[in-house]
Specification:
30% strand, alpha+beta, seven-stranded mixed beta sheet, 183 residues, two-stranded antiparallel sheet, 26% helix, globular
């Protein structure tokens, strides 16, 4: 049930125009939550944090849905507080992090959603050496992500220019995100 090593983000220090054409990049929102790998192996479900802490029991609404995936599935993503179609502030999510026992009131006031941005293993096949665009196509084709209540894939942000990316980034706080991920 152990997670794969987590790939971490680094801030862009140069002007985005130095990166070439935006269409050559995958642009996604940078979610403000808990980085986690969702794992389904041996008919069991696991959630691991980036700090390699097993957090399965703290997020029952997500953990219950992992069982819908085939054995040998590992998704990389972010757990976020989510209510009424919007991301909740990270401070709300922090209320759930340290609790050993979650009350029904806490589950109702700070529900969570898992936003997947990569598939690292599927049906027991390690996909980490595959190109990102192939893994992303597989992720977006997984029927579970469109059928389950508390799981979704991270939406792509299609932008024609780096100027538009910069402009859209200025709306991050209003959207409850930290900015963008460029992959």
């Amino acid at each position: 049930s152990k997670p794969f090593p987590f790939c971490l983000a680094h801030p862009l220090k140069d002007d985005p125009n130095t990166l070439g054409e935006p269409r050559e990049w995958l642009v996604e929102w940078k979610w403000d939550g808990i980085r986690a790998q969702m794992i389904r192996r041996g008919e069991e479900s696991f959630l691991w944090s980036r700090g390699e802490e097993l957090i399965t029991g703290r997020f029952p609404e997500v953990t219950g849905e992992i069982g819908q995936f085939p054995n040998g599935t590992v998704l990389d993503g972010e757990l976020v507080g989510w209510k009424e179609g919007r991301v909740l502030p990270f401070a709300d999510l922090q209320q759930r992090i340290g609790r050993k026992k979650l009350s029904e009131k806490m589950l109702a006031s700070v529900p969570v959603r898992y936003i997947a941005f990569d598939v690292l293993e599927y049906e027991g096949v390690d996909l980490r050496e595959k190109p990102l665009n192939e893994r992303r196509q597989l992720l977006e084709s997984l029927p579970q992500l469109s059928q389950l209540l508390n799981l979704q894939s991270s939406p792509r942000i299609d932008v024609p220019s780096w100027e538009e990316v910069t402009s859209l980034r200025q709306t991050s706080r209003d959207r409850g995100v930290e900015g963008f991920m460029l992959k």
